[in-house]
């Protein structure tokens, strides 16, 4: 059964609106991109597929795999990792972890997110994969799954290495994925904190966040800075205004200040020129369906996820919603079972397919249940 709904989404504002074109933005950094985190829609790009050394922005993938392993139940924040000689000798920005000391996954994650600690990144890698090289393979495998075609990782922390590269586009992809774990903001937004380190837990390190945008704009709540001589000054930043979250990436900026200024310029451009318009909400009711041989006759179908687009504030769009569901279904049914699909179309072209799910359990009707139902129907008749 097909049911087609025409939706007209208008974002014409009731006041004079000054349009700024993406082409008018002046970005001095070698490479940059601005995207909508939810949809991946690109709002601005400059040399976004150029393969460049990313420095410590590499650690976004390290944090992503860490969060995924926690989500899968393979590791816990309270687990303790034993610091290897490799991790302890890593150098660069670090927590100064000592060989054989034990440190919690949460402390290591905090060290990576706040201090950009190279030793903590290696310690996380070894704890998750059991071997550093195996973790690097996990990073490259995950990059491939995410469609990061401009990327090849040689380490987990971004220290200079041959054939270690990515692009602004690919950094935006892995940033989007990391942002699916809202708990990561608990670490990325820490401005300053103390961490106890050392084999005897006898040293206290005060660490401070390398992302200075956190203090410049309260919409900013991540992501990661990076710098090496080869990579220049790099930054992946994210900010949220209302329901709209943006990600900006700056690679090889001329100076530290310019990476922050240009990332903020892109974010401000996105928030000032675009508006988030929802086509359909997550868990939105999309109609009922008849249930055969169930202890109830009908159930509601709801969307598995929502969908929206960023639209320029002076633009209108039309969307069609096509609902594909059977005329009826048979019990038993479990809450969350896929029953049909909602297809969102723009100008007749499919832009999103969303599963329609049962909103409750339905048991198969028993003999006594059927008898009771027939009896009640007879009384009503």
Automatic annotation (TrEMBL):
Gene Ontology BP terms: cell wall organization; peptidoglycan biosynthetic process; proteolysis; regulation of cell shape
GO MF, one example: serine-type D-Ala-D-Ala carboxypeptidase activity
Catalytic machinery residues: 56 (acyl-ester intermediate), 59 (proton acceptor), 116
The entry's keywords: Carboxypeptidase, Cell shape, Cell wall biogenesis/degradation, Hydrolase, Peptidoglycan synthesis, Protease, Signal
Entry-linked Gene3D superfamilies: D-Ala-D-Ala carboxypeptidase, C-terminal domain, DD-peptidase/beta-lactamase superfamily
Signal peptide: 1-22
Catalytic reaction annotation: Preferential cleavage: (Ac)2-L-Lys-D-Ala-|-D-Ala. Also transpeptidation of peptidyl-alanyl moieties that are N-acyl substituents of D-alanine
InterPro entries: Beta-lactam/transpept-like, Peniciliin-bd_prot_C_sf, Peptidase_S11, Peptidase_S11_C, Peptidase_S11_C_sf, Peptidase_S11_N
Pathway: Cell wall biogenesis; peptidoglycan biosynthesis
Enzyme Commission number(s) from the entry: 3.4.16.4
Binding annotation for substrate: 224
Entry-linked Pfam families: PBP5_C (PF07943), Peptidase_S11 (PF00768)
Keyword Disulfide bond found: no
Residue ranges occupied by any Peptidase S11 D-Ala-D-Ala carboxypeptidase A C-terminal domain in the UniProt entry: 274-364
Primary enzyme class: hydrolase
Superkingdom as given in the UniProt entry: Bacteria
Biological function: Removes C-terminal D-alanyl residues from sugar-peptide cell wall precursors.
Family from the record: Belongs to the peptidase S11 family.
PANTHER family reported for this sequence: D-ALANYL-D-ALANINE CARBOXYPEPTIDASE, TRAFFICKING PROTEIN PARTICLE COMPLEX SUBUNIT 12
Annotated protein name in UniProt: serine-type D-Ala-D-Ala carboxypeptidase
């Amino acid at each position: 059964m097909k049911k087609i709904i025409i939706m007209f989404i208008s974002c014409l504002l009731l006041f004079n609106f000054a349009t700024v074109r993406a082409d008018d933005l002046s970005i001095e950094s070698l490479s940059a991109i601005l995207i909508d985190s939810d949809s991946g829609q690109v709002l601005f790009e400059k040399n976004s597929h150029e393969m460049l050394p990313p420095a410590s922005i590499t650690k976004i993938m390290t944090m992503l795999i860490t969060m995924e392993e926690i989500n899968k139940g393979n590791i816990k924040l309270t687990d303790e990792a034993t610091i290897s000689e490799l991790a302890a000798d890593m150098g660069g920005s670090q927590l100064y972890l000592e060989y054989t000391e034990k440190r919690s996954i949460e402390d290591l994650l905090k060290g990576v997110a706040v201090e950009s600690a190279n030793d903590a990144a290696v310690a996380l890698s070894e704890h998750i994969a059991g071997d550093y090289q195996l973790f690097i393979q996990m990073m490259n495998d995950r990059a491939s799954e995410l469609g990061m075609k401009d990327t090849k990782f040689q380490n987990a922390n971004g220290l200079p290495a041959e054939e270690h590269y990515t692009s602004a586009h690919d950094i935006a992809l892995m940033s989007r994925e990391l942002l699916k774990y809202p708990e990561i903001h608990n670490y990325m937004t820490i401005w300053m904190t103390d961490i106890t380190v050392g084999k005897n837990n006898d040293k206290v390190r005060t660490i401070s966040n390398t992302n200075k945008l956190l203090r410049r704009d309260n919409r900013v709540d991540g992501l990661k800075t990076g710098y090496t001589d080869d990579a220049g000054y790099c930054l992946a930043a994210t900010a949220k205004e209302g329901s709209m979250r943006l990600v900006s990436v700056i690679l090889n900026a001329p100076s530290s200040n310019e990476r922050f200024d240009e990332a903020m310029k892109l974010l401000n451009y996105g928030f000032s020129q675009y508006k988030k318009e929802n086509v359909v909400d997550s868990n939105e009711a999309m109609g009922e369906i008849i249930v055969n041989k169930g202890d109830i006759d009908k159930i509601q179908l709801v969307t598995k996820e929502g969908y929206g687009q960023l639209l320029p504030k002076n633009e209108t769009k039309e969307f069609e919603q096509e609902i594909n569901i059977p005329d009826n279904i048979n019990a038993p049914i479990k809450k969350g079972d896929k029953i049909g699909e909602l297809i969102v179309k723009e100008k007749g072209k499919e832009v999103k397919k969303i599963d329609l799910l049962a909103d409750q359990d339905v048991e198969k009707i028993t003999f006594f249940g059927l008898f009771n139902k027939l009896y009640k129907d007879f009384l009503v008749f």
